[in-house]
Amino acid sequence: MKKLVRVCAVVLLVAAAVMTVVYRAVNRVPSSELPLNEQVYQIFTDGGCLSCHSEDPELPFYAKIPVAGDIIKADIDSGYRAYDMTRFMEELKANEEVNPVELAKVEKVVLDDRMPMAKYYLVHWGSSLTSAKREIVLEWVRQMRARIYNDGLEGERANEPVRPIDQTLEYDAAKAALGFALFHDPRLSVDNTVSCASCHALETAGVDNRQYSHGVNDQLGGVNAPTVYNAVYNFVQFWDGRAQTLAAQAAGPPLNPVEMASESFDQIIAKLKADKKFAKAFKAVYPDGITEANLTDAIEQFERTLITPNSAFDKWLRGDDSALTAQELEGYELFKKYDCATCHAGPNLGGLSYELMGLRRHYFAERGLELTHEDNGRFKETGLERDRHRFKVPGLRNVEHTWPYYHDGTRETLEEAVRDMGLYQSGVELTDAETASIVAFLKSLTGEYNGSPVTTTNSREDIYGH
User: Fold this and answer.
1) What are the C-alpha distances in Å from 242 to residues 182, 278, 348, 463?
2) Which of 431, 241, 213 is nearest to 350 (CA)?
């Protein structure tokens, strides 16, 4: 009996040794002679990332087995729903700059050692993300982030996923002055009652603090008005991304039948040309005079001035250790821990990607309200089922003053918004203390416009009556 036990022990030791050798062999790190991006590309290819995070992955032979096939299909559906890595892998292979949001997502998954899942790497030997592979990926992230940003951050803070607002941006001062006038000019509306500032007033944090904005004849829009401050950092404009530039966005509301309801830009131009003083001033800046392209360009130039630097958080990012309280710092760490910074990245803490509303729980099923056309999000523009309920991620700068929250304006307070984001996007139930810390951090994002802190002159009592 003892001899049998000894034999079994030897067999097990030999098997373990063989398994260790095989594991190390199939999980070798890429050659250090390869460029860093090619090393990372090989790691993710070996890791089988596109097996779940792409639209049309190649299925293994065992996907046809009933039980295994159901598990595989569920994993693929979940992975693709959360993140399509196709573009990222193309950019990585070509050594191009990658979207800061995708960079943050990849970094967080690697830091948390979430992928690949055990049920994948136990079947696909060689796909494991070893410590050596993790170090390669994280070094690539650090170098890519330094390549993307030139904002002067130093030390450890140079690798933060959230970045400071620029002190200034380039713009044409003469055109911006015209843009300021146009932004506040109600003649862009059919009945001369509504201007851009009616819904995006500078003294109310660039919003109107209403669930839905009021257009001509007191008509209500169907989506919450996002702030105009820092909109220059958005990769597209509107919740559904239908405008690629600030100028294209400026061309939308004047002709929207609910907002300004003008029949055409010709109608607007005729009114502005009738103002001889304005027309003369305009022609001095734009030699070809008042045209749709020039009107929207002037508004874009003005909106390039609407940045809000010098928040407490920006001062901390730039090296002032005393700029944040202990609670605010704790809130930032929680913000990163619970994946908030993987979507709310960059200088505006958002505005760089489309994301699914209700990633971890079905937001619209639990909201208790009938679905609207606006709830479709990006799907309205593309018709692709995957884009249903995906929205451009809102920026979080000055967020304490831009209530109510979400595309549907259903959350009146920042505390509500944070707690429910934890549930629906991160799948965590935040404690009261965690919620308070994250809110404190978010309030540290309030910056300055023309040297004065951003605020709102509205009160919740005025808007909601309570």
Assistant:
1) 22, 31, 19, 29
2) 241
Residue 33 burial (10 A CB sphere; 0-12, 13-18, 19+): exposed
What percentage of the chain exceeds 90 in pLDDT? 82
Task: Look up the CATH architecture of domain 173-303.
Answer: Orthogonal Bundle (1.10)
pLDDT digits (tens, 9 = 90+) for 31-81: 999 999 999 999 999 998 988 899 988 877 777 788 777 888 888 888 899
Whether pLDDT at 121 is above 50: yes
Q: Do domains 173-303 and 312-464 have the same CATH topology?
A: yes
Quote the CA–CA distance of 329 and 344 in Å, as a whole number: 17
Does 259 participate in catalysis according to the annotation?
A: yes
Residue pair 107/144 in contact by the 8 Å Cβ criterion: no
> Which residue blocks in 125-206 are alpha helix, DSSP H?
131-148, 173-183, 196-199
Q: Which residues pair with 321 in a beta bridge?
A: none
pLDDT range class, residue 10, cuts 50, 70, 90: very low
Helix, strand, coil distribution of the chain in percent, nearest 5: 50, 5, 45
> Where is 355: in which H helix or E strand?
strand 354-356
Instruction: List Cα–Cα distances, 83 to 138, 210, 356, 357, in angstroms.
Output: 19, 32, 10, 13
Per annotation, catalytic residue among 102, 259, 300, 330: 259
Fold observed for domain 312-464:
Cytochrome Bc1 Complex; Chain D, domain 2 (1.10.760)
Reference 232, options 177, 304, 179; nearest CA is 304
Whether omega for the bond prior to residue 404 falls within 30 degrees of 0, making it cis, is: yes
Q: How do the domains of the chain map onto residue ranges? A: 28-148, 173-303, 312-464
With a CB cutoff of 8 Å and minimum separation 6, the contacts of 253 are 188, 196, 199, 259, 260
In 318-446, alpha helices (H): 326-337, 363-367, 379-382, 414-421, 432-443
Residues 106, 144: contact at Cβ < 8 Å?
A: no
Sign of CA dihedral 74, 77, 81, 83: positive
* 243: exposed, middle or buried (Cβ count in 10 Å: 0-12, 13-18, 19+): middle
Whole-angstrom Cα distance, residue 207 to residue 200?
4
pLDDT of 20 reads: 39
Share of the chain above pLDDT 70, in %: 93
Check if the beta carbon of residue 247 is closer than 8 Å to that of residue 259: no
